[in-house]
Amino acid sequence: MIEQNDAKKVIEVIGNNLIGVSHDSKNFERLPDSFWGYFARGHDEKGVFGVIITYSQKTQDVDELIKIYEEWVNKNKTKSD
Question: Has this prediction a pTM greater than 0.85?
Answer without folding.
Answer: no
